[in-house]
Amino acid sequence: MARVRKPRKPVERPSTPLALLMEKHLDDLRSKNYSEYTIKGRRVHINFFLQWVADRGISEPVEVTRTVLEAYQRYVFHYRKKNGQPLGFNAQHDRLVPLRVWFRWMARNHHILHNPASELELPRLAQRLPKAVLSASEVEQIMLQTNIHDPLGLRDRAILETFYSTGIRRLELAQLKLWDVDLERTTLTIRMGKGKKDRMIPLGDRASAWVRKYLEESRPQLVSEPDDHFVFVSNAGEPFAVDYLTELVSGYVNAAQINKQGSCHMFRHTMATLMLEGGADTRFIQAMLGHADLKTTQIYTHVAIRQLQEIHRATHPAQLTKDRPQAQQQARQDAADVFAALDAEDDEDPEAAS
Question: Exposure check for the chain: N or C terminus, fewer CB within 10 A?
Fold first, then answer.
């Protein structure tokens, strides 16, 4: 059955000078090749501010002062969600950063004489560890929840195997096209990932086998015409919405009854952590995840605890046994290897890691 395409909602015309400048700012970002997802996020966060100032009778850019912005920051801090919980500091940060960028753009383009957001202090962000990381046995328990004898269940198994093997983002999986999957070489090509960067990564033999089975047996039964050549399609035969992917994966996680909460991103954390524990170099994980900065990847070194436990058992006085000399020798060798790796990184050009 042919797919019926829903008409897009018309964009409302700006009703205030501030709203008009927001649209011009977003058009400028679009002309500089920012992704539509980035632009959509900026629109959402700036609109929160526009609604707040409109309730206070502010519509002109010159009316927005540093005092106004600081009052809005206090409002964001005290804001309560529908469940009564406050916004986390990361969420507060996300609401304020687009405003700083927007007002800087207005000042540079002479829409305002000075930038009232130039000295706006942003909340400090905590470096948080991933909420949940799965063990290999827990992953297998989740995989067993899929009904591989059903077209949808077979599709879901292929999706879970792809997340587990590659650690790609949910949007990257949703945007995969048929020509991005090379089952002979067992590779995936991620096009226009975060930062609009392409990368090629291993898919793995097991995941490749499940994807092949899905493409041959399940996808022909699910896809609707016209075929847009997306690898994974929804129950309606259309490309996946990322929120639906989240619901699908979290449903299998809950069904496995492993007492952990998470979805697509939990498989990303799991892949990185288990590979590090298996001995993979951090830079290889960086390439897999598509991180521009190695510092982003290094959070997983805090999660990969097994190697630290081994060193602790080998060196801590409360853990030492009659094999103490041998344990100490091994610990010294491990430390030497770590220091050598750090020295090697210090000698490299810092730009090469970004």
Answer: N
Look up the CATH architecture of domain 17-108: Orthogonal Bundle (1.10)
Whether 104 is catalytic is no
CA distance 189 to 201: 7
pTM equals 0.61
Reported confidence tier of residue 199, pLDDT bands at 50, 70, 90: confident
Out of 169, 170, 219, 269, the active site residue is 169
Greatest CA span in the chain, whole angstroms?
A: 79
Residue type, 43: R
Distance between CA atoms of residues 186 and 209, nearest Å: 9
What residue spans define the domains of the chain?
17-108, 136-277, 283-353
Give catalytic status of residue 25 as yes or no: no
Tokens found for residue 329: 């020798």
Out of 43, 212, 260, 265, pick the active-site residue: 265
Annotated active-site residue 268? The verdict is yes
| Three-point CA angle 337, 338, 342, nearest 5° | 115
Fold topology of 136-277: hpI Integrase; Chain A (1.10.443)
CA 171 – CA 160 distance, rounded (Å): 14
Of 103, 88, 91, 95, which is closest to residue 72 (Cα–Cα)? 95
